[in-house]
Amino acid sequence: MGAGEAGKGNGWWKGMRVFSPEYYAVCAVGGMLSAGTTHLAITPLDVLKVNMQVNPLKYNSIFSGLHILVKEQGPSSLWRGWAGKLFGYGAQGGCKFGLYEYFKKMYSDVLTGYNRSTIFFASSASAQVIADVALCPFEAVKVRVQTQPNFAKGLIDGFPKLYASEGLSGFYKGLLPLWGRNLPFSILMFSTFEHTVDILYHNVVQKKKEDCSRAQQLGVTCIAGYASGAIGCEEHRISQFVYKKPSCSIYTCWTCYNLAVVLL
Question: What is the number of structural domains in the chain?
Answer without folding.
Answer: 1
